[in-house]
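User: Second chain of the day. Same drill as before.
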Amino acid sequence: MNEIGELETEPGEAPKLERLFLSCNQLNSETLINSFKAISFPSLRKLTMFGNYIEDIEPVLKFLSVQCPSLTELNLDGNPGSQTLKAKLGPQGYKDHVNSLFGRPISLLES
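Assistant: Same format as last time:
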């Protein structure tokens, strides 16, 4: 496990970033949103954040749907919030819910 619990970022855009792997760290919902709120990722297609401490998944999903307009693959598996939402909605319900938040199909990867 890595020990990244906070991300230092500069405001702006990451126009060429297509893949971002932040798995097995200590990131939570608040840290993630606060770290990335001033950055847009117009080309990001794959985001992998399994195995963190993201408990409140809804704000993270809504945030990513705006900040990452090209996102097509997402892995939030192994976070408390995704496990809770999957248990509540079932696997297909979870997938449908994520797709409705993004307004487009998102491939949900599992670790």
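The first strand starts at residue 12 and ends at 13.

User: Great, on to the next one.
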